[in-house]
TrEMBL record:
Membrane topology: Multi-pass membrane protein
Statement: the UniProt record of this protein carries the keyword Hydrolase: no
CDD domains assigned: CBS_pair_voltage-gated_CLC_euk_bac
Annotated organism of origin: Gossypium schwendimanii
Cellular compartments annotated: Membrane
SUPFAM superfamilies: CBS-domain pair, Clc chloride channel
MF terms in GO: voltage-gated chloride channel activity
Name by which UniProt lists this protein: Chloride channel protein
Length: 698
């Protein structure tokens, strides 16, 4: 049931692992090929990589309450049937791999404080990076801490936090944290909600909508308070602006047929440049992974090299720009001697400014403001815009992936605004749109070509610029750029998920799945437990396998014939074994669990904080004793018949957000379970490894 270390390349073609040089495979296979886990606590559906548990396993901690109700109503036949074993309220589904090496949840939990301070230092140092990535990371980390019951490290262990230690609340909190990160980075509360809907949440429900909305509303209020505090200029260059970061609402929005054609061209260019950007980022990340394996010193050297290259471009390229006379009708001082502004006097005579220096020798936010500035048609020369676009495009590609916290939004907006304004200058004789609006549409096209998002990007851009009149053109350019980009490759987030080798499940079933049935891909050997099992058998299975879920089979005398009782999680088995609720006879002893083990012991543990196998102290004489598994068994797991189409099973698995799906036999007289399907069993590399030639069938 374990996945092999070698997994397929971006297109899932299994043949790439055989007969090719290792050097070639480095640039095609996932980076985390030596990962111990094959399916993990992250449920990845399409582009949505979100640390969650299955929807099939929600509130296990309340099982004890149900047992108490059952005990109290034991003398009432009708209610005892209602609260009996048949309707125990646990929803169990687990990961089959036993090690606690979770992919995204661990990555999100590590060094969250460094993400904050590292982002501050990197953005202020002038790297071509954005702060939105670390902000989303930070918000998700804070939410994860709350969702795992707090942190002793940060002295946040209040008792009320333990009520969030269940899968659904943790998933919702992390989604809210991601939305808060976007809202704070772009001062776009509604955009943060839609970003969580479109990109962060694997499964959306109406209750989560108002929770994310409430979170981003609080973010907006706190932002407004700090903006008011910074209005006196005490916060420096990075504290400028209000809730609207790049206000272009003063520009007149009027367009005709030539303008529509120019916008369509922008969308096509954005899709092409975006797909090329994603391709280059993929190759650069793979190259950096090879370089970074040589040690921390090489990582630091790589950062220093990129820093020097960025500085050389920022201070060297403006020397090649031609000084431009200051405009007569400007309301700003020209040349500008402040640290920010449109008109830098870099090596220019009096009453002249260096337009390229006005873009490079500013913060990234000020550079975007300069590019989006309206009623300044000839402020930037065409050659300067071209040089700036090429430089930012290349620096954005090579900077992403070095050992600094960084985001993709700001570099993409910078590059897109650069070529958007360039197109606006070229179309100036025949267009009515302001070049600043062309810059905004260029940024939208490049975002659509790289991120492949539509609704959230549209709202974020409108909240950033406060120009609702441009909504139709923004929608058009986003749709075109996304469509063109999808013709070449996947979005950048999709590619990074595949690059990391994370278990990735598409939103739709692959065409070749319709030629297979569920039993064709289940892996063996299948390890099952009896309803009342020997301690030694359980301990041996936990030691020799990495599975996180085990079928429980009831046999005589507890059932007339062998039947599937349900599924039990490894983590719950460890808690039960640690409690040592054993008996020398093979009898039911479920009620004893209620009195000896707290319901919160079965709650979701934080990363690496659950009971481990080495924590158990099982004596030799206890190995032959029995333990009742019924109290911790999910008696209503999702099941499919073995002859169900694999395509239908994949759609069901994805839509229900499962992590385990039991495959039962079609006919009687056979063992009550054929196997278990997990996310790994639906991955192309697993299926194509079993049936290499099935891809050719349509």
């Amino acid at each position: 049931m374990d996945q092999e270390n070698k997994v397929a390349n971006e297109e899932g073609d299994i043949e790439c692992y055989y007969g090719k040089d290792m050097e070639e495979r480095i640039y095609s296979q996932p980076l985390l090929t030596k990962r111990h886990n094959t399916t993990s606590q992250i449920a990845i559906v399409g582009a949505n990589a979100c640390p969650v548990e299955s929807l099939d396993y929600e509130h296990f901690m309340y099982i004890v309450d149900i047992y108490k109700i059952r005990e109290n109503l034991a003398n009432i036949v009708a209610l005892s049937k209602l609260f009996g074993f048949e309707i125990i309220g646990i929803r169990n589904a687990g990961v089959r791999m036993g090690l606690a090496v979770t992919t995204a949840l661990v990555l999100m939990h590590v060094l969250e404080e460094l993400a904050i301070f590292g982002s501050i230092l990197c953005v202020s140092a002038g790297f071509v990076v954005g702060k939105e990535g670390p902000m989303v990371h930070t918000g998700a980390c804070i939410a994860s801490l709350i969702g795992q019951g707090g942190s002793r490290k940060y002295h946040l262990t209040w008792r009320w936090l333990r009520y969030f230690k269940n899968d659904r609340d943790r998933r919702d909190l992390i989604t809210c944290g991601a939305a808060a990160g976007v809202a704070s980075a772009f001062r776009a509360p509604v955009g943060g909600v839609l970003f969580a809907l479109e990109e962060a949440a694997s499964w959306w429900r109406s209750a989560l909508l108002w929770r994310t909305f409430f979170t981003t509303a609080v973010v907006a209020i706190v932002l407004r308070a700090f903006i008011q505090l910074c209005s006196t200029g005490t916060c420096g260059l990075f504290g400028e602006g209000g809730l609207i970061m790049y206000d272009v609402s003063a520009a007149k929005v009027a367009y005709s047929v030539p303008d529509i054609l120019a916008v369509i061209l922008l969308g096509v260019i954005g899709g092409i440049f975006g797909s090329l950007y994603n391709y280059l980022v993929d190759k650069v990340l793979r190259t950096y992974s090879i370089i970074n394996e040589k040690g921390p010193a090489v990582k630091i050297l790589l950062v220093v090299t990129i820093s020097l290259l960025t500085s050389i471009c920022s201070y060297g390229l403006p020397w090649f720009a031609t000084c431009i006379p200051c405009p007569i009708d400007t309301t700003e001082s020209c040349p500008n001697t402040d640290l920010s502004g449109n008109y830098k006097s870099f090596q220019c005579p009096p009453n002249h400014y260096n337009d390229l220096a006005s873009l490079f020798l500013n913060t990234n936010d000020d550079a975007i403001r300069n590019l989006l500035s309206t009623s300044t048609t000839k402020e930037f020369h065409i050659s300067s815009l071209f040089i700036f676009f090429i430089a930012i495009y290349c620096l954005g590609v090579i900077t992403y992936g070095i050992a600094i916290p960084s985001g993709l939004f700001i570099p993409v907006i910078l590059a897109g605004a650069g070529y958007g304004r360039l197109i606006g200058r070229l179309f100036d004789p025949i267009t009515k749109l302001d070049v600043g609006l062309f810059a905004l549409l260029g940024a939208a096209s490049f975002l659509g070509g790289t991120m492949r998002m539509t609704v959230s990007l549209c709202v974020i851009l409108l909240e950033l610029t406060n120009d609702l009149l441009l909504l139709p053109l923004v929608m058009l350019v986003l749709l075109i750029s996304k469509t063109v980009g999808d013709m070449f490759n996947h979005g950048v987030y999709d590619q990074i998920v595949k690059l990391k080798g994370l278990p990735y499940m598409e939103a739709h079933a692959e065409p070749y799945m319709k030629h297979l049935v569920a039993r064709d891909v289940v892996s063996g050997p299948l390890i099952t437990f009896s309803g009342v099992e020997k301690v030694g058998n359980i301990l041996h299975a936990l030691k020799t396998t990495g599975h996180n879920g085990f079928p429980v089979i009831d046999e005589p005398p507890f059932a007339d014939a062998p039947e599937l009782c349900g599924l039990v999680l490894r983590s719950h088995l460890l808690v039960l074994l640690k409690g040592k609720i054993f008996s020398r006879d093979r009898v039911l002893s479920g009620d004893e669990v209620v009195h000896r083990i707290s319901k919160f012991d079965f709650a979701k543990a934080g990363s690496g904080k659950g009971v481990k196998l080495e924590d158990l102290d099982i004596k030799d004489e206890e190995m032959d004793m029995y333990v009742d598994l019924h109290p911790i068994t999910n008696t209503s797991p999702y099941t499919v018949v073995e002859t169900m189409s694999l395509a239908k099973a994949a759609v069901l698995f994805r839509q229900l957000g499962l992590r385990h799906m039991c495959v039962v036999p079609k006919s009687q007289g056979r063992p009550p379970i054929v196997g278990i399907l997990t996310r790994h069993d639906f991955l192309p590399e697993h299926i194509l490894g079993l049936y290499p030639h099935i891809r050719l069938r349509k």
